[in-house]
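Quick check before the chapter quiz. The format below is the same one you will see on the exam, so make sure you can read both the input and the output lines.
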Amino acid sequence: MSTTKYVLVTALGVAAVLLLTSDKANQMRQDLEETARKNAKKLKNKLGKVNNRTSDTIADLKHLLSNEIEGLSDDARSRIENILEGTAASASKIKRNLKDQLS
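Here is the expected output.
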């Protein structure tokens, strides 16, 4: 390696050390971390609201199918209920995974 490359690599190393250890860099990292936490909380709350609305809608659909819709065969009714139950289970699994990742 030529002398210029050594000087350049050394300068980059010094710049990296200064950026990682300076007070301003520490403050910047803390600000980024705080912003990330706030955004994670907001996202978690929004996902919780979406999940609650989805769960309520699925429960309403199941109630509607089991009590109010006439003319469906028992087989069709059973298949639709199974799909709705699978959807609810998938939504719960997604919610748990997101909660784990955001924690």
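If your answer matched, good. Residues 55 and 89 are 10 Å apart (CA to CA).
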